[in-house]
Amino acid sequence: MKYKHLIIYIFLLFIVIDSCTTKFVPEIDEYDNIIVVEGLLTDEYRTNHVKLSRTIPIGITGISSPLVDAHVYVQDDLNRIGMFYETRPGFYASDSLTFIGETGRTYTLHIHINGREYESNPMLLQEVQPIDSIYAEFRYEEDGLYPPLYQYTVYFDSFDPENNNKFFRWTYEEVWEYHLPWHYPPEYKRICWLSEKSSDIIIKNNSTSEEAIINKFPLLQLDNRSSTRLFQKYSILLKQYSICEDEYNYWENMKKMTEEQGGLYDPIPQSLTGNITCIDDPAEPVLGYFSVSAVKDKRLFIKNDTLKYMPGGQYCVTDTAYSIEEISGLGTYVFVLEEIDEGAYFLLTRSEQCADCRVFGTNIPPFFWYDDK
What we know:
Distance between the termini: 62 Å
Number of helices: 4
Structural class: mainly beta
Number of strands: 22
Strand content: 35-45%
Helix content: 10-25%
Shape: globular
């Protein structure tokens, strides 16, 4: 009883503290409502994108406000123009059938919005060296926890014999197969594919090296305890970009800012204003960067049939029933997970994502999923 009274006291104390707390929103206007440009043009036969938004005042929910109805296009040094059309609020896309980047050409981004014109610096689309290999090293550890630790560290190698590339940036895209740990839902609800694009800033300055050699560069770690990526089959597509020194400095400053998680009163670094200028008012700050680069990529598959442990399934069960014939809301807000002993009783849940993986993934495999066979 003593511990019960202590828990109640702590709970009431938090209520009192919360009721006496008023949210403080400082008046900081200097960096409100600034245009943010995020653009990438490559030599891939695919759609290129430009994202336009504005920063919002501190204390307002959200990260940025999309900029709509802008006139966006890219022009090369031969005066050829590629239009970007708004596909959803703040997102503008090119037509991959009529416009892609070419190595050796210089490209300038143009934005017209609200009577103002914005323009990027002319950016050279450089060739980039290929990725020699991408591979994973496996580690197994029995540390007293269940299940034992299965861990992969993904590395890659890259080499340019002509040493043309000095500054690099990498991104990656992950896809993994996921199976619900239950047998009652039909297969089209049990087997799905999940995907995620990298958000880390991965860059390297190789300008001081006599040769452009990148050897055993650590990309990421995967294990069977922190995510579901390794439980069936996993794939990662690594993309390599060659960037100029100015863009490298931009990403380096951005990385430092995000890693240090600057405080509320830290000023926005002026270096993050990137390579976009307002033609009508050059003093207007514009955040973001218009990147231009050739791309080389390489894919890795990891499949380990021993990694079948599916944690978290036990948290899906909310009830049991001896019959499901008269259950109200069955298939709408009550879902069957398992039939035990040929219908002796059933495991039920109110969480749809526990019974249908399409809530957070797709049941259509990606086109490359069986390329490793």
